[in-house]
Amino acid sequence: MIHADVIHDQVYLCREPVDMRKSINGLSVLVEEVLTRNPFSGHWFVFANRRRDKLKLLYWSRNGFCLWYKRLEKQRFKWPAHLSGEPITLTLDELRWLLDGYDLAKLKPHQRLHYESVL
């Protein structure tokens, strides 16, 4: 599995399908041109094909790019609707859920509470 110590603070999900023949160079260009992000940031960038049965994850780690690939033998990844706009940001937990086949749109955590004092 992917090591959590390499991630800085963001996982970006590309909404549009990507040609899975693209490798590090092609995907890093998509990071800059489509996601408008810096591919050398250490953030993770996630891409899927049109059928949503293949996924690639690209990130920069200290002195080089890492490319992670997953192909499903059955079923498909639950991907957000193809909407234009900003790429979707995920937490590391949400990325793990996506890789495990969960539909992120249907997962609703408890409401986050913010308090200033216990008095």
How is this structure best described in words?
A hairpin with a 5-residue loop joins strand 2 (44-48) and strand 3 (54-61). The protein is of the alpha+beta class and 119 residues long. Helix content is 16%, strand content 23%. It is globular. The protein has one domain.
Please summarize what this structure is:
This protein has 119 residues and is α+β, with helices and mostly antiparallel strands.
Topology:
Blueprint: E1 11-13, H1 24-33, E2 44-48, E3 54-61, E4 64-71, E5 88-90, H2 92-100
Parallel strand pairs: 1-2
Antiparallel strand pairs: 1-5, 2-3, 3-4
Keywords, separated by commas or semicolons:
single chain; 23% strand; alpha+beta; 119 residues; 5-stranded mixed β-sheet; 5 strands; 2 helices
Using DSSP, what is the number of strands?
Answer: 5
Proportion of beta-strand residues: 15-25%
Structural class computed from helices and strand pairing: alpha+beta
Share of helix among residues? 10-25%
Low-confidence stretches: none
Q: In whole angstroms, how far apart are the ends?
A: 44 Å
Order of helices and strands: EHEEEEH
Strand order of the largest sheet: 4-3-2-1-5
Count of alpha and pi helical runs: 2
* Rough outline: globular
Mean pLDDT: 85
Radius of gyration: 16 Å
Domains, number: 1
Largest sheet: 5 strands, mixed
